[in-house]
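Hey,

Quick one before I head out. I ran the complex with adenosine-5'-diphosphate overnight. Inputs first:
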Amino acid sequence: MSEACGADRPGDATIRVRGLKFRSGGQDLLEIADLKIDTPAPTMILGPNGAGKSLLLRLMHGLIPPSEGSVRVGSGGTAQAMVFQAPILLRRSVASNIMYALKVQHVARKRREGRLNELLELGGLARRARQPARTLSGGEQQRLAMVRALANEPKVLFLDEPTSSLDPHGSQQLEALIAKVAAGGTKVVMVTHDLGLASRLGEEIVFLHHGQVREQTPEAEFFERPRSQEARSFLSRHLVLP
Ligand SMILES: Nc1ncnc2c1ncn2[C@@H]1O[C@H](COP(=O)(O)OP(=O)(O)O)[C@@H](O)[C@H]1O
Ligand SMILES: [Mg+2]
């Protein structure tokens, strides 16, 4: 019984970073002694340009190897996925883009059609199924990239500024989709410059500065009483007070 439930036990989406260094050109671009991400609701990674947010996400997703230290996502075999700032879509229809992902992720042939329809529906793309993906609006393309990333039913989903090129309406719709995915039990770890979105969706904030984690703070506390001087000055530069 406990064996059978093992893969789904709470904590299977826990991310643990230890003694992590990423060095390039003789510089330590990232240096994180110990970071544990284990809240079920979304974690938002904030920080100035060049702080190392994208690097950290890529390291956590295993796209680049650390110079030192380790990253562990869940129990090792945990399904994870990542969506980038600019989606890379196949020159095919919306449906084929999703179908291709379902095949690559070895979803059983007889389940693919049903799963395709679920994902189209989830992304608000059902009416666009036959349309070439490249002709979608920016917001629709990003929603397609999101639902395509869900093909392997990831326990952890990394998002690198997915709303940064979208207009307010596109951004709102993507935010609603992210909220739905998170409510469905996928752990979302997201980099964003949109502090409103970070505050609405985030349960906790990881604040990066010069390649280091300056604080990891519950969302409400971060925006009211940031612990670090760096976060205070970051917020004072970014929050437009009425
Ligand atoms: N693959 C890489 N190899 C070497 N240096 C990199 C790599 N990716 C990013 N960098 C450098 O690391 C620093 C942090 O970049 P990045 O993580 O993209 O910052 P941001 O917080 O804006 O996402 C920058 O100085 C960038 O030039
Ligand atoms: Mg970045």
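Residues 53-54 surround magnesium ion (ligand 2) (CB under 6 Å).

Talk tomorrow,
K.
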